[in-house]
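Below is a filled-in request sheet from our internal design queue. Each sheet records the structural input a requester submitted and the sequence that came back. We keep these sheets so that new team members can see what a complete request looks like end to end.

REQUESTER: design group, bay 2
PRIORITY: normal
MODE: inverse folding
CHAIN LENGTH: 98
BACKBONE (tokenized):
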């Protein structure tokens, strides 16, 4: 089981320099848990990419639906201060995905 945030979720659905690493992470462990707020953050990412014309409206909606289907069964309420503390302790960074 992995606890993920939007920085991990987004490259799963939007091609980026981190996509290959995120797919490798999913192959290693497909049970991802996240706070329900992550889907709201992901919606904001999708809206930003759509406004920049990196995604069409249809693509953004499809990405959101896929992410919601994948993540919803595994939502868990996490106090945000606890999540921040863990990230700081573990020194988690995007580079860890490469």
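RETURNED SEQUENCE:
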């Amino acid at each position: 089981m992995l606890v993920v945030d939007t920085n991990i979720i987004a490259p799963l659905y939007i091609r980026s320099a981190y996509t290959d690493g995120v797919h490798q992470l999913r192959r290693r462990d497909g049970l991802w848990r996240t706070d329900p707020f992550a889907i709201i953050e992901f919606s904001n990412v999708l809206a930003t990419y759509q406004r920049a014309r990196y995604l069409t409206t249809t693509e953004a909606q499809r990405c959101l639906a896929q992410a919601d289907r994948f993540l919803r069964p595994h939502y868990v309420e996490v106090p945000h201060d606890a999540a921040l503390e863990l990230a700081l302790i573990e020194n988690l960074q995007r580079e860890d995905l490469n």
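SHEET NOTES:
- The first helix runs from residue 6 to 13.
- The chain is about 60% helix and 5% strand.
FILED BY: M.R.
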